[in-house]
Amino acid sequence: MFATRDFNTGDLIVNERPLMVVPRIPVGVLTDEGVPDEQASKTILHQAEKVMRPVFGRMREEDKKAFMELHNSHLQDGSGPILGVIRTNGYVFGDKAEMSLSNSNTSSKETHTSIFKDLSRVNHSCSPNASRKFHVSTFSMQLRAARDIKEGEEIFTTYTDILEPAAVRAKDLASYQITCTCRACLDPDKSDPIRAAVLKRPAIFVPMQKDFGEGWIDPALETLSRIEQEELQGSHLYRRTLHQVFNAYVHMNNEEKALEFGKRLWAAKLAVGEDRDERFRNVELMKKSPQWVMAKMIRGVPLLQSFI
Fold this sequence. Notes:
With 308 residues, this protein is α+β, with helices and mostly antiparallel strands.
């Protein structure tokens, strides 16, 4: 998928309803006790295919065609043609950027997987420029710009945890027959330490002295710099760090900087569908936020505070 125009951070790229939605573990798929693991796996895959056939059979002919044209990376493991496409292209319903069925580390909320005509074709990157989220209210998945995207640029999502080391990401992607050639995977000796530092981002503490400077927020600004260097704006830690810096500048009554980072935080929240937090929608609402009001009340009073 390529951008046909420029997109700003948070802009909607695609809003699409799925071709199919199925349980991650098909209902009614069982094996007999004592069956060897390999045979049990084949039996489960065979039964799962049988469960999926009636679902596939009820689809419109044009949707069936689009579904079967999707890539299938499970041709040799006993998966049938329908299940193979589902396992290759399904997105978990939850908010995490991870594919379905192959990953067992999921919460109870992530019980279904969805397959799309267009969104399932979006390629992977360990530095994705787009974020996705399924919205139950519209029964559709939205893909939004995680950072500014230029016309003609390829649009990427991610199929794994982008903060993990390259070796872990490679293992996650292997089941999809993907060998990632993004900058981070080609030079893990450079990339892995930066991502590890982002993952271990520190809290920042307000100095107790009255006339403090701004140096105490440098660790958070350094984290933002690392995130931008590695193009990790799709990570939840990008939003948390922006919020951290916003709180710090509000505490220092640096209105210009606080509003700058508040606007960036709102765009980052839009990118992942977190538009219910109205505090950052505009300048007026930011200035009415509890953080802003409290900072005005305690101006100049040294308090033991930290921002995580």
